[in-house]
Every structure is written in C-alpha cells, then in structure tokens.
Amino acid sequence: MKAKPAIALAVAGLTLALSACGTETMYMIDYPYYATAQDLYSAATTVVVGTVQQSSAKMIDTSIPPGPAAPMAYTVHQVVVASAIKGDAQTGRNIEVGEAGGRVGGHTYRSSSGILMSKGNTYLMFLSCQSDPCYLMNPVASVYQVAADGTLKAMDGNSLTVADVAAVTGLG
After folding, report:
1. Integer Cα distance of 72 and 127 in angstroms
2. C-alpha–C-alpha distance, residues 130 and 7, integer Å
3. What DSSP state is assigned to residue 69?
C-alpha cells in the first residue's frame, strides 16, 4: 500500500498553516531545506527530466490514519519522463507530479511558492514518490526548467547552484 501524501510530506518535515479569505485560501507550507544539491539528491526517491503534458487541480486527502479527512488542493501534472536519473520511473512513461495549490470548485488555493510548472515545458525534478501522485521535495529547490539546448534554469529564490545540481545528476 502506498503512503498517503501527508505521510510522505510529514516525513520530509512539512508544516502547514491555512489562511482563508473569501474564495481564496493561502497555504503557508514550510518545506525542508537542502543545504547542498547532494542533500537534495539523497533525500529524493525519484529524479527525472520530464515534460508536462497537462495539468488539473483536485482535492487530495492528506490525512494520516486514523485522523479525520484532511483535503488539500493540488495541481497534478501529467509528466512524460524523458530521462530517469534515480528511482523507479521509466523513460517514455507518464508519472503524476503534484504541486500544492490550484483552483477547485470555484475556489482558489495558493501556496507561498505558487504553481511553478506549466504545460509544454521540460523540467528536472527531485521527487518524493512514496504516494501517487509524486511530490516535489521543495517547490523552489527541486524543480529546474530545462532549455532546448539542455541547460538548466533554477527557480527564483533557489540557493542551490545549477552547476552543483547538474554535477550531482550527471546533466553537467
């Protein structure tokens, strides 16, 4: 049996606070910090390069049994794997990758990092795949846009160097 999203995220040290106002809810999520690219790589169960094919938002129960239901909005991306670097993902196959936040039932749920990935773009992703969908280890440090020439671009606010990430993944 696969772990619930909250189990995977709780193990990673996630804390969550909610703030609601009208038709918008803000998720304030404290993701784990990784001091080095090697730390991030070691913590990830799966590392892939993949292209987002489509995305949709849905509520996912993040409760840890026997606790009450804990629905949380996620944008779930359908990603086709171009290169499997670590873990069980297979090149050419699809995986689902969840990012906290999205629009469900006319209500907007936002995380402090926002939704970073978008359809048609290719990314290097460091994932926790202990449940379905997989989740980014840290939405800023664990996703890098891959340009057509193969160069990596870090997200704003990322303290890890692209050179270190490229070296640890073999993409450099």
Report:
1. 19
2. 8
3. P
Q: Where are the beta strands (DSSP E) in the chain?
A: 15-21, 24-30, 46-61, 71-86, 94-100, 102-104, 107-111, 122-128, 134-136, 143-146, 152-154
pTM for this structure? 0.85
Domain boundaries, position 134 = 5-169
- Separation CA 94–CA 172 (nearest Å): 25
DSSP state of 117: -
3-state SS track over 19-49: EEECCEEEEEEECCCCCCHHHHHHHCCEEEE
A 10 A CB-CB count for 5 gives 26
Q: How many structural domains compose the chain?
A: 1
| CATH of residue 84 | 2.40.50
> Strand 24-30 to strand 15-21: parallel, antiparallel, or no bridges (unpaired)?
antiparallel
- What was the pLDDT predicted at 38? 98
The structure tokens 């990784």 sit at: 34
Torsion of the alpha carbons at 83, 86, 89 and 95, rounded to the nearest 10: -80
Block means of pLDDT (10 residues each) for the chain, length 172 residues? Answer: 39 43 80 95 98 96 85 95 97 96 92 86 96 91 94 92 96 77
